[in-house]
Amino acid sequence: MNEQIKYYEDKLNYELDSSDLYQMIINNENIIVIDTRTEEYYNISHIPNSINIPHRTMDKKITKDLDKSYLYITYCDGIGCNGSTKGALNMSRLEFNVKELLGGLDWWIRDGYETHGNNAQAKHKISCGC
To answer: Tens of pLDDT along 15-44?
Structure first.
């Protein structure tokens, strides 16, 4: 197989964008979205129905009740934060199936999707060009 093709196939196996995540949510796919930031930041604003497991606390004890048949999507603040990568790595080490949300909460909001929390934002008209 062409190395370049393999690279992009592999990349899509581990990442998704906010439009992909939104489609998975409305299609009611077997996913669980994990906000990997601290509880303080989660309470300010987060993706609806996401759960909060800060990447620094992810271990067997914290994740023992999570169903390994689901796909877990990790996210953090955005492109300048690697908490989602650390969370995805931790969850992978714990043998969960994981993808990382590109651009994190920042791109989720930029794309016009709703957030929950103390600083919640309503959904805006979405026009994805991709």
So the answer is: 999 999 999 999 999 999 999 999 999 999
The vertex-21 CA angle with 124 and 122, nearest 5°, equals: 20
Domain coverage including residue 73: 3-110
pTM: 0.92
Q: Is residue 102 part of a domain?
A: yes
Within 13 Å, how many C-alpha atoms sit on residue 104's CB side? 22
Q: Count the helices and strands in the chain (H runs, E runs).
A: 6, 5
Q: What is the CATH number of the domain that holds 47?
A: 3.40.250.10
How many structural domains is the chain composed of? 1
Q: Of all residues in the chain, what percent are helix, strand and coil, respectively (each to 5)?
A: 40, 15, 45
Is residue 47 one of the residues assigned to a domain?
yes
